[in-house]
Amino acid sequence: MGEITNVMEYQAIAKQKLPKMAYDYYASGAEDEWTLQENREAFSRILFRPRILIDVSKIDMTTTVLGFKISMPIMIAPTAMQKMAHPDGEYATARAASAANTIMTLSSWATSSVEEVASTGPGIRFFQLYVYKDRKVVEQLVRRAERAGFKAIALTVDTPRLGRREADIKNRFVLPPNLTLKNFEGLDLGKMDQAADSGLASYVAGQIDRTLSWKDVKWLQTITTLPILVKGVITAEDTRLAVENGAAGIIVSNHGARQLDYVPATISALEEVVKAARGQLPVFLDGGVRRGTDVFKALALGAAGVFVGRPVVFALAAAGEAGVSNVLKMLRDEFELTMALSGCTCLADITRNHIITESDRLLVMPSRL
Hints:
Largest sheet: 8 strands, parallel
Strand content: 5-15%
Helix content: 40-55%
Number of helices: 14
Oligomer: single chain
Order of helices and strands: HHHEEEEHEHEHEHHHEHEHEHEHEH
CATH topology: TIM Barrel
Distance between the termini: 57 Å
Strand order of the largest sheet: 4-11-10-9-8-7-6-5
Number of strands: 12
CATH class: Alpha Beta
Structural class: alpha/beta
Shape: globular
């Protein structure tokens, strides 16, 4: 395999190892994949303003998320069907997150159930929720997550219908016959049928509730005491509604650029959301994070932490649990170095003054008149 020096190198290995249908499912975005590319490129347009001659011999990256202390502001995003990547699937990811003392978010569409993930041992875990048309299914699932010791619900709100993922349509994507959506196995909802296009798109059309609205955030609060993070917010207007409706936090996400193409990169939408939240709830960033420098940029723009998705799945495919552990370690080490070279010894030291965005550069352009 050679020495892996950054998390992006796992993707090429995953591409070689995985069947085309599985790799394309993890790697692809919606339609023209403009947002998929922009999720990365937008980070590259943010520059640093490092401070010098500051004692950085000791650096503290610890933080608290919803009252839980973790080792760094880098957490694992929900990604579906991880056993397509590696036989250990979500078990491996859960163990790696726990060993790194950070948070793993388990997908509703995991190939390991909430109980199975809990059985890997202690760890701080969130549960990502899709709302099914049958609300009894949702209630049952939320209660199971609670019983299994999960600490929060990440409610995905940007998927009333599945985005048009052309790679999945071409491949006639369907979950391999040896795997099921484990959380739904006993409910006859764990299998995915072959379809004329994407089997997942057909499954979503049949099961996911398109009527989902803010009143359902309130409804969720009546069936669980767990804090609810609203995942999929990219505007100030929806941020204010999330605050009004009692969300415990916001995850700025465009679903890994897999839903509506030509929405902004999450890092580009972040500051608008942070300003609208006015410190009333924590705002997290999900999407495009591949470097410790990206983590620093997100925190400088007001994020309380970041969630990482695809790098985890690609590393899982390449090297199982050791790969996931290495992704977390590399991002942590790069982030620590970025803090040191920017003159920051703890997360509170990271400020908006440490970066220059495109809009900042436009504002300081000398007049041409």
